[in-house]
Amino acid sequence: MVTAPLIGLLIATLWTMAQPARYTSTASALVSIGSGDNIGVALTADNLAKSKARQYAELGRSRSVAENALSRVNADISTSEALEDIEVSNTEQSAQLTIRATASSPELAQQLASAWVAALGEQVASLESGNLTSPAPGAPTSSSPIRVAPLSDATLPGTPSSPNAPLALALGFLAGLAIGLLYALVRKVLDNRVRSARALEERFGLTILGTIPEVSGSRRGGSQAQRTHTNRVMMNHDESSLTASEKRARFRTVESFKELRTNIQFLRPDHAPRAVTITSSHPAEGKSSVASNLALALAQSGTPVVLVDGDLRRPVLAKSFGLVEGVGVTDVVLGQASVDDVLQYLPDVPGFALLGAGRVPPNPSEIVASDRFNNLIRELSGEAFVVIDAPPLLPVTDAAIMARRFDGCILVVSAGRSTFDELEKVVSSVHKIQGEILGAVLNRVPTSGSEASSYQYYGDSYYSSTTGDQSPTRGRRKLFDRKDPRS
Known about the structure:
Strand content: 15-25%
Strand order of the largest sheet: 5-12-11-6-10-7-9-8
Number of helices: 18
Order of helices and strands: HEHHHEEHEHHEHHEHEHHHEEHHEHEHEH
Shape: rod-shaped
Number of strands: 12
Low-confidence stretches: 217-230, 464-478, 483-487
Structural class: alpha/beta
């Protein structure tokens, strides 16, 4: 909306520069009627002059006057063009006539105004003497007592009368502002995308468990390297090479996942969830990044965590963490390996384990709906908190099945991208099979401007250069009390 008035100003400026300059000269004449010393006769003559002035104003716009005036001016102008550029007016209750002539140069405008006064005077004299034909230029005037006499000489304009640059710029600004306001109104009425946390809560009754700030490249999906960095943002690393803005961005992201971790830990105190499914409406909304960083945040707080790649169609977790691909869930479900054989660990994050997707099967829905998969997750959740990265809900039903069979799902909503129509279908599909949505995570939330407050994001308000996780590290036990197979 801010740019619309500026665009209006730019268009008005360009239009003004493209218009040819036009100059306006003004001359005036007075209708007079000879009278004697008698006051009554003088009054009558004055009233007659005022009445005649209105008639002569119309006469001044006739072709005969125009032709007579043009014969006095050395310019290549047609009668029609001259009539378009001449204005003859009479002030109400006055015997005065005003002639305004517009031309391409100040001198020509002045000549036209002067010539028009002279031509109109000759035409009036000829008519009042009873001659109905147009007088020749410079012909002797009649002896009629009614005549049109010059009152003031035509002015020589110093500045163009058009284009009127101030007026054009003002109109351009106002037009741009009006269009900007109209666009904002239409966008607000028709835009169906999620643009505030409050709207999401009020429309679907979803609890906002966390708001994850937007990072570079995330809105367009980003490269694999960017996604890997996002997945590992909760892991401690050297910040000495980062700029101040990069440290601030990392601080915001780290704190947002700590907030998410805390909110999940306080869900249902009497029946705390042990296996949660992370999903979204569509691909590329950041569900895998949220699942990875949530698992890392839980592990850093001392909670044993197993991150399960439940997206058997497009597994990405093993690759993003730089671990072995092609082994995991499908191997255990098909009985080709045990959990101990396929669990993978990160040496610098105690209490964290990854169970990859394994080989991509031809029947992913049947795998996740099987009792073996159910038993696998139940076994893992008995000893650790299980975070399942599930496929998106709209393309396939895998995530809805997991939300029904385990402790519910967390819906990742991409700020400014996910629509209410999509979310309505997603929420309906989960509720139809009696699945539970634990809450929503707003991902890629703007960190500055008015949109940041509308998403209830205030992550920049309290920043310190020391952003490391201060959770106690002493006394952590190895997940399941098992050794890392790679150690």
